[in-house]
Write a structure and sequence with these properties.
- This protein has 290 residues and is α/β, with parallel strands linked by helices.
- The chain is 43% helix and 20% strand.
- The longest helix has 26 residues, at 257-282.
Length: 290
């Protein structure tokens, strides 16, 4: 019997999170015999693979830097009809796969659809740090992403046939490859479908280093995705004060007012980090990959 789902997880220096991820996957209400898990190491500095992975878990390696290269290795090695992507620092809900399965069953032409699930950013403890608060308020608003025509690979699924037809992700990108993949798919008539019950929790980044590193990676991804003749537009946008981003944070009424104010303070710091990153890459330095 062919497997129905291949869960693909790129891992770069986050092996300490994998036992919790595997425990969440082990607790899925969906039949364990119908899916596999592919853990793809992407050149971690310290490789600490759990000794007991489980019968349906495989360990793979990708020597080329970049999580999208690692995802492509997973696509190539997968044995299932459907590909499900999440990240090492995510914690899938027990009904994660069952909700996806129901969503696929309810939709005609599902093979030509990218499915995106809900992502909730959660703190590490009862009293979140300043940077965790920023990450929580900013979040990963998957439903908004889908309306704009893309989805984050923290909770993302498509058929293997679709991924192969598109040639996988763009491995040259360290960030924004999910956005680029979705846009390429839509040019071929593929649609996006948001599944609110297909849920994962995403660990909030706890300190300045983690938040700023992500900001550099995302901004570098935007810069590298732009055509050479239009990269100046990315520079100008980055230099402009993040007025709309401040507005979005302040309108996040599901969070306390104090959280929103703190998030704006961190956002200002992030803005300066993004400016420095764009200037740095403009002088032919390598973009951030972490």
């Amino acid at each position: 019997m062919q497997l129905k789902y291949s869960i693909i997880v790129p891992v770069y220096n986050q092996w300490e999170y994998i036992p919790d991820l595997l425990e969440c996957i082990k607790n899925q209400t969906f039949d364990q015999e119908q899916f596999e898990v592919l853990l793809v190491d992407n050149g971690s500095d310290i490789l600490s693979v759990p000794k007991f992975l489980g019968a349906n878990v495989r360990f793979l390696q990708c020597k080329q830097p970049g999580s999208y290269n690692a995802r492509n290795i997973g696509i190539f090695a997968s044995n299932a009809r459907w590909l499900v992507f999440t990240d090492a620092d995510c914690l899938p809900d027990k009904n994660w796969l069952a909700s996806l399965d129901q969503g696929i069953a309810n939709l005609s032409l599902s093979e030509s659809t990218i499915f995106a699930g809900h992502v909730e950013t959660v703190p590490s403890g009862k009293f979140p740090s300043l940077y965790e608060i920023y990450d929580i308020v900013k979040g990963i608003p998957q439903h908004k992403y889908v309306k704009k025509g893309y989805a984050a690979t923290a909770n993302f699924a498509c058929s293997r046939e679709l991924a192969n037809n598109l040639g996988g992700f763009d491995g040259k990108l360290y960030s924004g490859g999910d956005h680029e993949f979705c846009k390429r798919a839509q040019h071929k008539g593929v649609r996006l479908k948001y599944l609110p019950n297909m849920r994962v929790s995403h660990r909030a980044r706890v300190n300045a280093s983690e938040v700023f590193t992500k900001a550099r990676r995302l901004k570098g991804g935007q810069f590298m995705q732009a055509k050479r003749g239009t990269r100046w537009i990315t520079v100008l946008r980055t230099l402009s004060p993040p007025i709309f981003a401040v507005k979005d944070l302040m309108l996040s009424i599901e969070h306390p007012y104090s959280f929103r104010i703190k998030a704006v303070l961190v956002l200002v710091l992030v803005w300066f980090v993004e400016i420095w990153e764009v200037l740095r890459i403009s002088f032919f330095m390598s973009p951030e990959r972490r």
